[in-house]
Amino acid sequence: MSVLDGIVAGAREDLEARRAVVPEDRLWERAQEYGQRAPAAAEVIDGLRGTDGLRVIAEIKRTSPARGPLADIADPAALAARYAAGGAAAISVLTEPRRFHGSLEDLETVRSEVRLPLLRKDFVVDAYQVVEARAHGADLVLLIVAALGRRELADLIALARKLGLVPLVEVHDEQEAARAVDAGAEVIGVNARDLRTLNVDPDTFARVADRIPAGLVRIAESGVRDPEDAARYARLGADAVLVGSSLVTGDDPAGAVAALVAAGRPA
Ligand SMILES: O=C(O)c1ccccc1NCC(=O)[C@H](O)[C@H](O)COP(=O)(O)O
């Protein structure tokens, strides 16, 4: 079983346990409630476009299967506020509990303190998790092509949009990028990390981005270590970078985000 398959199996077990406690129709009510005060999806998408420079999506990430423990984040809202002060365009909150030590409570706490768009970063394979994301204050939801069949991907994209959420569709190779485009994704993340082997290949974005038509939002994910990496992705045409490990392991999250934003400005 690949790492991704193992994580998805755990996510399915966990979501069934939550569904037994909170039925989906209760979540719908909360999701619609948040939808009334949430930014419009078009506004969220436009905020990620790198028209005048690279955007930074800064991640709340405590630990990772690839690297083990990263940071003991006792107050995710305080960290998100620092990211916002540094100029982040959006915050990614890892909500997966088993391997990343995240939670929906983290998402909700960050929502209560920060006005930026929030991404629920998890292993979403069921409609329940999409409704749950909105109910806990997400504006974007991650959908990983490698974890979903064609029909499932199309259905989850449609559901996300119905709820006002922006689906961030994640790919790792050219074939997956073609599937994301065929499914009508407007925001596509190219993950340099192969979720089956955990290897990070910094050339992935350069290889895959050509398959993503102009006009769609292209995000380079994983392995961004410093401003030089950000500048390289900006030159390659990325609208945004999604950064976790290097931000949570540093001692100045606001300064680190500001440095990435500065490095991604056009010369
Ligand atoms: O981070 C991992 O080890 C990992 C392993 C298996 C599946 C997903 C994983 N990470 C999720 C992500 O996509 C990253 O958290 C995100 O892109 C940020 O990456 P990084 O800046 O390298 O922490």
TrEMBL record:
Enzyme Commission number: 4.1.1.48
Lineage, uppermost ranks: Bacteria, Bacillati, Actinomycetota, Actinomycetes, Kitasatosporales
Annotated catalysed reactions: 1-(2-carboxyphenylamino)-1-deoxy-D-ribulose 5-phosphate + H(+) = (1S,2R)-1-C-(indol-3-yl)glycerol 3-phosphate + CO2 + H2O
Matching NCBIfam families: PRK00278.1-1 (NF001369)
Family, similarity comment: Belongs to the TrpC family.
Class of the enzyme per the UniProt entry, highest EC level: lyase
Pathways per UniProt: Amino-acid biosynthesis; L-tryptophan biosynthesis; L-tryptophan from chorismate: step 4/5
Record bears the keyword Lyase: yes
UniProt KW keywords: Amino-acid biosynthesis, Aromatic amino acid biosynthesis, Decarboxylase, Lyase, Tryptophan biosynthesis
InterPro entries: Aldolase_TIM, Indole-3-glycerol_P_synth, Indole-3-glycerol_P_synth_dom, RibuloseP-bd_barrel
Alphabetized GO MF terms: indole-3-glycerol-phosphate synthase activity; phosphoribosylanthranilate isomerase activity
Residue span, Indole-3-glycerol phosphate synthase domain: 4-259
Organism, as annotated: Streptomyces coelicoflavus
Name of this chain's protein: Indole-3-glycerol phosphate synthase
The keyword Lyase appears for this protein: yes
SUPFAM superfamilies: Ribulose-phoshate binding barrel
UniProt GO BP: L-tryptophan biosynthetic process
